[in-house]
Amino acid sequence: MIQKIKGTFDIMPEEIPTWRFIEETARTVATRYGFDEIRTPTFEATELFRRGVGDTTDVVQKEMYTFLDRGNEGRSITLRPEGTASIARAIIEHGRCSDAMPLKLFYIISCFRCEAPQAGRSREFYQFGTELYGTETPAADATSIAVADALLRELGLPNIKLHINSIGCPECRPNYRAALVEYFSAHEAELCPTCQARLKTNPLRILDCKSPICHKIAEGAPRTLDHLCPACADHHKGLTEALDALGITYEVDTAIVRGLDYYTRTVFEFIAEGIGAQSTVCGGGRYDGLTEQIGGPRLPGIGFAMGITRLIMAMEAAGITVPGKQPPKLYIASLGAAASMKALQLAEALRNDGLYVECDLVGRSLKAQMKYANKIGADYTLILGDNEIETGRAMLRSMKDSAQEEIALEELAEKLK
Ligand code: HAM
Questions:
Q1: pTM above 0.70?
Q2: Closest approach atom of ligand 1 to CA 122
Q3: CB distance 309 to ligand 1 below 6 Å
Q4: Backbone angles phi, psi at 362, to 5 degrees
């Protein structure tokens, strides 16, 4: 038997109500903050992620699904590992950088990363994300965080902890970089080969290396917050003041550096307890240089993305359940060929009237039809035979209390609504 590819998963019908609840709540919350939905292609030119996400990141170096484009030989394309770079490309390409700002966009997308699968980490996964463009104010950062916070609350997850940090800007980076190089050089021999190379190319990336030894060494590394330029320090202070004003609780956590190269200044994560190692349900930050990095004009931005599977895990851990599929309002059972055709017709008419109705499609006996109606939890059943067709009247039976009443078929829709 052919099985699904490692690291992918099916979302079976009984799981769909939870997915839809999350997606619909996300859409409602984002819309309330003025974010508009955007959809971009599943694959992009590889160069976009190399330049946007960054050549020295784990995502670009180890995790991308990259292949040659059959439709344009020689061109390398990549299944999107995330949404931010694609959306930056789309707004540049559509000339939206000169729109009235802020530009506020959200998306619900599948992403692809070739990581070792485990609970909460898959190779195809789904994100809800927002991007807020065109302003550098701490109020924009706070608003972005407020969207994530509001969504988590509306999903019934108010206890997920917000961690924030600032990783500075190109102005303060050189100083910080020098401090990191000095610190990590003393441990060079112990670092993994990738991080030994990163010591020369991008020492900041050593801070989020997944190797346990590098991770341990990184714990003693200099902290970005101690190396911020005055403008970044002010920005960070402005964000903490705005979050305080909004009543959003947070912890300043200097270990949050994020694994993607486009971030500047604010970075943040929401971390859920009790869902295992993959506990970051949401990650985001500011990326003031991204649009320029991929060939567009300068347009500062801030955003986040949440992993939908991890949200579901957090909801399960918190005992939150979403109502499942609604049962049919009516099951029309039939006896004989003419009645079976009439049942089909009647079901169609009632469905066109907006009711969820089932009738027999597999040729079951009357007894088996009634058993099936019970199994699927129909609110009412109706039995059609030759007599009912002739009189245009039938017995409507409530499955809840077995009460029966005779009803004219043309009054059914009215009765059931
Ligand atoms: P990220 O931290 O790479 O950031 O991913 C965001 C979230 O996606 C994670 O916190 C996690 O919940 C989920 N996620 C990531 N990888 C996986 C995986 N392999 N399996 C399941 N869930 C996963 C970004 O993607 C940025 N684009 C976020 C952003 C938007 N920053 C600014 N704007």
A1: yes
A2: 20
A3: yes
A4: -115, 5
